[in-house]
């Protein structure tokens, strides 16, 4: 995806995007100012992420474009030490470079109601 | 039953295969300066995660479990000094009226406990959707301290913030409270979520729990009792022991044992399997804590 089409995608998602330089360590590198390949749109709505499973290739740079619909959900990938709050209606982008293969669980870590415990998903990084 | 008799009774239960765990903490050897003359043994009961108002396949009998447990506690051989509920008294609901109705129902049921010294704490199901407002109206403060038998108890709230933070204000309150204590004082922390990162991918953690543990670390005799994970679990962070309690609604899988934290299937042939409560026999002079696990219904 070109930089122009990625910007159009982000505008379509919610009008504006925030690049996060959130604390990160381990296998993921965040490059807030760096173009990050494929954009993966993820919607957070009580009590599910859609899609709930996302797949990438080892070494791939991706941008997660996260948008909460109905609550200040959290998005947390514990094994990658990546998390952010999701303000309803806004798109939050997380730029990741996925250096190691694995299955990384993610979850909403802001208690959002009866069903919160099932609001989780999986990032699969294929070798 | 005298306290000494009671300790002997517990020891006998352990010898006979009863579910007794003695949590003896390091640092006892230099306790002489902090020992309180006359600090006699006592015991209390921990109940957790009753989820009053839950309706679902994971426990179709959930409406019966709490009252049954109250009867079992009332029938204990010796009456505990006090009882503590470590959170998730009620199952969450978006409706503020229904939330309060469940809390009042819960209060009415536990009013049948013969022991009237009962301490309540919130879980995320009680408090996270309204920052603890309903809980405070009906049960009182979400964090507090009290002293009993020479032990200093601190109830920490890590659930009124939906993001599972204790928060700077409460951490400052904790520090001010601890500053008043001798480093060898026996301290028990009561809380809902684990203060350490047990299984973060299952939301079994407290986001700023490490800050609380850092404040507690200089104190040599600290033990934590908590709930949230619906099973008995024991863990050490340095010299601090952490003991989680079973729930009274449905059991959850062992920490990290599977991809998702789905409740264990309910078995109509054993409707109370995996549920229960514990009594804690405290010996402040050592200090040590002997734990004994009980099922909802005793045979």
Domains of chain A (count):
1
Unreliable runs of chain B, pLDDT <50, ≥5 residues?
1-5, 11-19, 23-37
CATH class of chain B: Alpha Beta
The CATH homologous superfamily of chain A is called: Cupredoxins -  blue copper proteins
Short description:
Chain A is mainly beta and 127 residues long. Chain A contains 1 helix and 11 strands.
Key traits:
heterodimer, A: 127 residues, mainly beta, Immunoglobulin-like, 11 strands, 9% helix, B: 299 residues, alpha/beta, Purple Acid Phosphatase, chain A, domain 2, six-stranded mixed beta sheet, 7 helices, 12 strands, 24% helix, 22% strand, disordered N terminus
Question: How would you describe this structure to a colleague?
Answer:
The complex is a heterodimer of chains A (127) and B (299). Helix content of chain A is 9%, strand content 47%. With 127 residues, chain A is mainly beta. Chain A has one helix and eleven strands. Chain A has one helix spanning 3-14; strands spanning 17-19, 28-29, 38-45, 48-50, 53-57, 61-68, 73-77, 82-86, 91-98, 102-107, 120-126. Chain A has a single domain (3-126), classed as Cupredoxins -  blue copper proteins (Immunoglobulin-like). In chain A, strands 1, 2, 3, 4, 6 and 9 form a six-stranded mixed beta sheet that branches. A three-stranded mixed beta sheet of chain A has the order 5-11-10, with no helix packed on it. In chain A, strands 7-8 form a two-stranded antiparallel sheet. Chain B is α/β, with parallel strands linked by helices and 299 residues long. Chain B has a single domain (48-254, 273-294), classed as Purple Acid Phosphatase, chain A, domain 2 (4-Layer Sandwich). Helix content of chain B is 24%, strand content 22%. Chain B has helices at residues 3-15, 62-74, 96-110, 124-127, 133-138, 168-179, 209-216; strands spanning 20-24, 42-47, 82-86, 118-121, 144-148, 151-155, 186-190, 221-226, 233-237, 240-244, 277-283, 288-294. A six-stranded mixed beta sheet of chain B has the order 1-12-11-2-3-4, with helices on one face. A six-stranded mixed beta sheet of chain B has the order 5-6-7-8-10-9, with no helix packed on it. Chain B is globular. The interface between A and B is medium-sized, with 20 and 21 residues.
């Amino acid at each position: 995806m070109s930089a122009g089409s990625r910007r159009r995608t982000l505008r379509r998602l919610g009008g504006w995007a925030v690049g996060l330089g959130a604390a990160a360590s381990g296998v993921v590198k965040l490059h807030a100012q760096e173009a990050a390949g494929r954009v993966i749109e993820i919607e957070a709505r009580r009590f599910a992420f859609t899609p709930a499973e996302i797949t990438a290739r080892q070494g791939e740079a991706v941008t997660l474009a996260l948008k909460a619909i109905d609550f200040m959900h959290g998005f947390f990938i514990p094994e990658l030490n990546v998390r952010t709050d999701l303000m309803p209606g806004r798109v939050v982008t997380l730029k990741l470079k996925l250096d190691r293969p694995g299955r990384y669980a993610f979850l909403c870590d802001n208690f959002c109601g009866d069903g919160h415990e099932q609001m989780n998903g999986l990032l699969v990084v294929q070798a | 039953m005298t306290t000494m008799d009671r300790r002997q009774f517990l020891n006998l239960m352990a010898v006979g295969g009863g579910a007794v765990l003695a949590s003896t903490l390091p640092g006892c050897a230099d306790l002489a300066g902090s020992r309180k003359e006359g600090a006699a043994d006592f015991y209390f009961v921990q109940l957790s995660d009753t989820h009053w108002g839950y309706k679902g396949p994971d426990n179709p009998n959930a409406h019966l479990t709490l009252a049954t447990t109250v009867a079992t506690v009332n029938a204990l051989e010796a009456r505990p000094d006090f009882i503590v509920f470590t959170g998730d008294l009620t199952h969450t609901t978006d409706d503020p009226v229904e939330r309060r109705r469940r809390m009042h129902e819960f209060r009415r049921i536990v009013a049948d406990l013969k022991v009237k010294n009962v301490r309540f704490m919130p879980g995320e199901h009680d408090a996270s959707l309204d920052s603890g407002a309903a809980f405070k109206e009906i049960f009182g403060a979400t964090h507090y301290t009290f002293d009993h038998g020479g032990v200093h108890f601190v109830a920490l709230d890590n659930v009124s913030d939906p993001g599972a933070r204790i928060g700077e204000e409460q951490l400052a309150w904790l520090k001010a409270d601890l500053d008043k204590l001798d480093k060898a004082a026996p301290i028990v922390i009561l809380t809902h979520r684990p203060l350490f990162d047990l299984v973060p991918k299952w939301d079994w953690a407290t986001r700023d729990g490490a800050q609380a543990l850092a404040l507690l670390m200089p104190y040599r005799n600290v033990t934590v009792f908590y709930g949230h994970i619906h099973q008995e679990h024991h863990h050490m962070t340095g010299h601090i022991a952490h003991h989680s309690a079973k729930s009274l609604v449905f059991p959850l899988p062992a920490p990290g044992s599977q991809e998702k934290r789905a409740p264990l299937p309910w078995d109509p042939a054993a409707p109370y399997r995996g549920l229960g409560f514990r009594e804690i026999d405290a010996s402040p002079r050592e200090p040590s804590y002997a734990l004994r696990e009980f099922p909802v219904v005793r045979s």
